[in-house]
Amino acid sequence: MAGFVHPTAVVDDDVSVGGGTRIWHFVHVSEGARIGARCVLGQNVFIGRGVRIGDGVKVQNNVSVYEGVEVEDEVFLGPSCVFTNVVTPRAFIERKQAFATTRVGRGASVGANATIICGHDLGAYCLVGAAAVVTRDVAPHAIVVGNPARFLAWACSCGQRLPQLAAEQDCGECGRRYRTTPERCEPLT
Known about the structure:
The protein is an all-beta fold. It contains no helices and 25 strands. It has a single domain (4-161), classed as Hexapeptide repeat proteins (UDP N-Acetylglucosamine Acyltransferase, domain 1, 3 Solenoid), CATH 2.160.10. It has a nine-stranded mixed sheet, with no helix packed on it. A six-stranded parallel sheet has the order 3-6-9-12-15-18, with no helix packed on it. The protein has a four-stranded parallel sheet with strand order 2-5-8-11, with no helix packed on it.
């Protein structure tokens, strides 16, 4: 399946781009990056050296995915969300050896203008609210909001908020079944 690279995009040498991926205006994909199939990289996206992006990922406009960030399949990165890769940056000190890994799990969604402080995992199918500031790991299926980001509720894989915190329940939207407690959300079907 053929993809698309806009003429204003810069794709460095030694980059792998999967079939059907679309790379739009003013995107820069750095050396050694691996972009999966059926992805969309919106306008003004930057993908750092050696970054791995899974299949079916949508990266909206003005997002920078720096070295040290790993993005699994079917992730949504909202407009202008921010990833960091050094905890204590200084312009006059090079700290490339201190890049902290951030993992974004399968099916996760990061809202517009959210900031993800490096060194934390975003669990599968979690939802990070718009403008949230993530300063610790986010559990799979958790919805987090605010600054600093705090737990709000559990979410189904389809993205709908689950109504209860401690019960077996079905998603009202898609019918998937879950067991939830205050600490975790476990898919049953």
